[in-house]
Specification:
The protein has seven helices and no strands. The chain is an all-alpha fold. It has a domain of 82 residues.
């Protein structure tokens, strides 16, 4: 028995292998990461495209803030409409047809009152707000 105890005293403890690291990733994990990130990149791309397509709206609102007369306001609205809609439709519009176009292209926006003001008169606050609403909410049919 002494030989068995003697032989057991020379044994070493069990050594466990190292825990495998997470890096480098296996091809399956790379694929999983790509599949998880793909919708995020797609959404970011879509939002960036929308942001760029609406640049004319942001510029229009800024121009409208600087407008001082009814004439200036109508010029800004026409410029925005020329970007958003085909030129052959918008360029020839004036008078009642122009106001009908403005009201038909945005819901709950009333700009027909602009007809009753002289061109050089200052812009009433409620009309500036309506024009801003039109710029922000008209239904664009242009090619962006």
């Amino acid at each position: 028995m002494e030989s068995a105890a003697h032989s057991l005293s020379h044994l070493r403890d069990i050594s466990l292998p190292e825990i495998p690291g997470l890096w480098p990733l296996t091809p399956g994990l790379w694929l999983l990461c790509i599949l998880l990130l793909l919708p995020l990149f797609n959404q970011a791309n879509t939002r960036m495209r929308q942001y760029r397509c609406n640049a004319y709206r942001r510029i229009g609102v800024q121009l409208l803030k600087n407008a001082t007369s009814i004439d200036d306001l109508q010029i800004v609205l026409k410029r925005v409409a020329l970007v958003a809609y085909p030129r052959h439709i918008v360029a020839s519009l004036y008078g009642p047809g122009w106001f009908e176009f403005l009201e038909n292209t945005a819901h709950d926006v009333s700009l027909s009152e602009l007809q009753s003001y002289p061109a050089k008169s200052p812009i009433p606050q409620h009309l500036r707000k309506e024009a801003t609403r039109w710029i922000r909410h008209h239904q664009s049919e242009g090619t962006h």
